[in-house]
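Protocol step 4 of 6: structure prediction from sequence.
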Amino acid sequence: MIQVKICGITNLEDALCAAENGVAAVGFIFHSPSPRFIDPLKANDIINELPDSLVKVGVFVNEAAEEAKRIYDDCRLDMIQLHGDESPEYCRHFPKGRVIKALALKNEEDLKKADLYPVAAVLADSRRAGLYGGTGKTMDWNLAAQISRPLILSGGLKEENVMDALQKVHPAALDINSGVESSPGKKDHAKIARIMRIIHDETAGGKTPQIFIRREKI
């Protein structure tokens, strides 16, 4: 089955529900303007209770590299997702295999930009009114399908459209947030279960790259 990340986790119950339904990763948003922001100390408490097999991803927006590194280490995160205006040079502060770069694809020039980043995968998302993701709006799937890098598809994915997205884009992984919520930062467990059943039925037996990987333990 294709890998799935449930992002915007703010409590243990939602993270455990995601794990029980077969997701590969959960995301914690360390960007204070976000309605799904979580304090690193609280995220650490949640991570302590999660299965080792579940990949933990920290989401940062235009954060100082040293601060992102500190949170990455303190919370024992597996991967870093850069969701702001970070440059390719900024990404080089981190190991390539641990970084996901989110990009808003609006035109052909953005496709060329995607090739410049030294990262494990590109995440295609939508931006609206200055928001760095989490808008609940889909992006241009035709553009996303042209990305030559390992692609994580995000942006407005929900049970009503996820099958169509998979068939049109053929991404390496999915990142789902608002489409499985009852309110910002609070997941609807029934929605998680239903969308994961749809994804399983659509992609079971298929071979896709493993984007979300666990951090080596020291």
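Step 5 (inspection) to follow. The radius of gyration is 16 Å.
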